[in-house]
Write a structure and sequence with these properties.
about 725 residues; OB fold (Dihydrolipoamide Acetyltransferase, E2P); Rossmann fold; 7-stranded parallel β-sheet; 6-stranded parallel β-sheet; 21 strands; about 40% helix; about 20% strand; disordered C terminus
Length: about 725
């Protein structure tokens, strides 16, 4: 067995290997060698405490400023409070109960140490409760790391760690496997590596884990970024190459068909952006190679209209079109809006159906047996030109008469395999149009959607209203929250409606919420200090009996029966409900032009792109929208800065950049897309745009010259490892 494939339990022992497998997804020597330090502390240098992320496991190097033991519970309990400093800011450490004796002895004022724990806020101050620590002792001449023998150099690696395994323990484990780095297979072609002045892989691994100088780190990073970018781009280039070998049925637009009739009855003019993107799609559909196009556009930019016109073109050309939505709520919403937009054109075979018409059917997992049978029959016979559904469309028993186009909405909820499963339902591969309302910077499009051509809709249709966004600091200024409910009441009195969004549903989730994270092994004090996220059922009840008394308040969440969800949405869309209290089930696709206000509770618990998506549910009519982001986070926290950024701009592309920069992940689109998140450890998608673009070019050259990579065994091995991760991605059923 190659050294890098050796299981960690053989090298580190079963206990450490088990923690690494369960909590860090590290299983082999190679996995651990590619678990790179997050940053490096210089011996003698202190960590900037003001920049610590909240609710994350952090490792800091700091100096003890003071320590004191306090009694509570009438003297029966005691806790140790230690204040550490970086020279400018301070952070409090808290130890409880019998566990205070050793830290009280070790952590004397002036002592330097590494501390690891979860950063939280208590009494509006940052703290680490029960942190682990490793002393960095000093002798008379210089600081010596006698506790960690391998750290003889000036740079201390700080590893991404967990509560179960601190950074310094990971460093010791790395020491044990580092000799195996000499056997690492190099995935880069030698000519590429030498042409770009990159160090060999073995050298890069040694330098990233045990650098002697900052130049060592720079060399290693430059090399390892290229590995990640290049291997990923080769995977995408091979997918593109395979697609060029496929043939599809050309579906050229037909004059005087369904599309012409549909365009003639539109009550508005298409934007220039919609016309331009439609032309790109029509050109692709008219060729004998399958279209692979990503359509990205801001919330409300009219993507559904563009997709519908593409589907009508395919129906005109004798084919069928399928639209795949991530949730039942969204599938039903699309079905309603498509049939409403088409009117009599969607009534083929019915009294009053137009001369040019087709049938539009809905197919979801929760449909009754009779309705499902009829829908499946309409697809098999070709009676239905358009089908809209959830993942139920992928099932084996679904057969099409002649599937010509697949439209996937909100691509990041589906893995590549699910996309391919639906594509395989045609005699020849159908054309593919992928839509997303999550704005994607160019580099992410190249990285995550590198097998697709990209079209962007960046204009909003005429008549869309601006959305004002404000942060409501509930902890600092409780009267602001009271005013938020007054504003909701004012909107309703003005004839409009409002959403209230909460992170959780409620009832039996309380147990799960407490246990999530550190597997329920927090101290009682820890639990008491951590407020659970607000829940739909609780908030709806409080509002209906409190500040929104007298208004018609309903709830919507993912655990409701599909028929109940649909009934709630219908009542809200019809204006029978004043306020809808919901989870993020309303995040995409829900279209109620009369809804003008949204209050997002615990807004800091949502990501930047998700907040932007949610906000896009209001301001969809002629009246201006209002979005209020409620938070209890302190003013100086990174979470508040994030909310401030969302409130300050409606530009989704700008927000997606902020989102990526803050998360430091290679994927703004969530975990289920292509295994990309798990494969990008070093590459920063925003900063490394140039590397990604160059790697894409090099990868295309390599794959064109040698599609099977027969002359590059190291690259094949790296590719197999990446694709193993990709195959593990599953469909998120919403």
């Amino acid at each position: 067995m190659p050294a890098l494939e050796e299981p960690l339990k053989k090298v580190l022992g079963p206990a450490t290997a088990k923690v690494m497998a369960e909590h860090m997804d590290l299983h082999t020597v190679g996995d651990l060698l590619h678990h790179y330090p997050r940053r490096y502390a210089e011996r003698g240098e202190l960590t900037r405490l003001a920049e610590l992320p909240l609710d994350e496991h952090v490792t800091v190097v700091a100096q003890v400023a003071s320590a004191r033991v306090l009694k509570f519970n009438g003297g029966r309990g005691q806790r140790l409070e230690v204040t550490i400093t970086d020279g400018s800011g301070q952070l409090q450490l808290v130890f409880f109960g019998r566990g205070i004796h050793k830290p009280h002895k070790d952590l004397q004022p002036g002592t330097r140490a590494m501390f690891a724990g979860k950063a939280s806020v208590f009494n509006r101050k940052m703290q680490l409760a029960h942190p682990a620590y490793q002393l960095l002792r000093a002798d008379s001449s210089e600081e010596a790391a006698d506790a960690v023998d391998s750290w003889a150099g000036a740079l201390i690696p700080i590893y991404p760690a967990t509560a179960k395994l601190e950074s310094w323990k990971i460093a010791k484990a790395v020491d044990l496997v580092l000799p195996s780095a000499r056997e690492a297979e190099d995935p880069l072609p030698e000519s590429l590596r030498e042409g770009r002045g990159l160090v060999p892989l073995t050298e890069a691994l040694l330098k990233i884990h045990r650098p002697h100088t900052k130049a060592d780190i720079a060399d290693a990073r430059a090399r390892l970024k290229w590995d990640e970018a290049f291997v990923l781009q080769v995977a995408l280039a091979r997918r593109r190459f395979a697609d060029t070998q496929l043939t599809a049925v050309a579906r050229a637009p037909k004059p005087e068909g369904l599309l012409t009739a549909f365009d003639a009855k539109l009550p508005f003019t298409l934007t220039e952006g919609q016309r331009k993107v439609s032309r790109e799609i029509f050109d692709d559909l008219a060729t004998e190679h399958p279209m692979h196009r990503l359509l990205q556009g801001e919330v409300g930019s009219g993507k559904t209209m563009v997709a519908l016109r593409a589907m009508l073109t395919v129906v005109d050309a004798g084919g069928q079109a399928a639209m795949l939505a991530p949730t039942e709520v969204l599938a039903q919403q699309h079905h309603r809006s498509v049939t409403e937009m088409m009117g009599e054109l969607a009534e083929a075979g019915m009294l009053g159906g137009a001369e040019h018409s087709t049938k539009v059917v809905l197919l979801t997992g929760s449909m009754g047996a009779a309705a499902r049978r009829q829908a499946l029959l309409d697809l098999t016979t070709g009676e239905a030109g358009i089908v809209i559904g959830t993942h139920a469309l992928i099932e084996d028993k679904v057969r099409f008469h002649d599937l010509g186009l697949v439209v996937v909405d909100e691509q990041h909820r589906f893995g590549v395999e699910q996309r391919d499963a639906l594509r395989s339902k045609g005699e020849k591969p159908p054309h593919l149009l992928v839509m997303t309302a999550t704005p994607i910077p160019r580099t992410v499009a190249m990285t995550v959607f590198g097998d697709l051509e990209t079209s962007v809709l960046d204009q909003l249709p005429a008549g869309r209203s601006p959305i004002a966004s404000h942060v409501v600091p509930a902890a600092d200024k409780p009267h602001f929250l009271a005013r938020a409910w007054e504003r909701v009441r004012e909107e309703v009195e003005g004839g409009h409606q409002a959403y209230v969004v909460c992170p959780r549903i409620g009832d039996d989730e309380d147990e799960k919420a407490g246990k999530k994270g550190d597997k329920g092994e927090k101290s009682a004090e820890d639990e008491a200090e951590r407020r659970p996220p607000l829940a739909v059922l609780d908030v709806a009840d409080e509002l209906a009996h409190g500040p929104l008394r007298g208004l018609k308040v309903e709830v919507l969440h993912g655990r409701m029966q599909p028929a109940d969800k649909d009934a709630v949405m219908r009542r809200f869309a019809a204006g029978e409900t004043d306020v809808l209290v919901a989870t993020t089930v309303i995040e995409v696709g829900v279209n109620v032009p009369n809804a003008t206000a949204m209050v997002i509770m615990d807004a800091d618990r949502f990501g930047v792109s998700q907040l932007h998506q949610l906000r896009g549910r209001v301001g969809r009519g002629s009246a201006p929208g209002l979005c209020l982001l409620v938070t209890e986070m302190p003013e100086a926290s990174p979470a508040r800065a994030r909310l401030g950024a969302v409130a300050a701009t409606l530009d989704g592309f700008e927000l997606s950049r902020i989102d990526l920069e803050q998360r430091r992940e290679g994927d703004v689109l969530g975990q289920a897309q292509s295994g990309v998140r798990s494969s990008l450890r070093m590459l920063a998608v925003i900063e490394d745009e140039e590397i990604i673009a160059e790697a894409r070019e090099e990868a295309t050259k390599v794959v064109t010259a040698d599609p099977e990579l027969t002359r590059l065994p190291g690259l094949r091995t790296a590719l197999e490892a990446l694709l193993d991760e990709e195959r593990e991605q599953y469909l998120d059923k919403g």
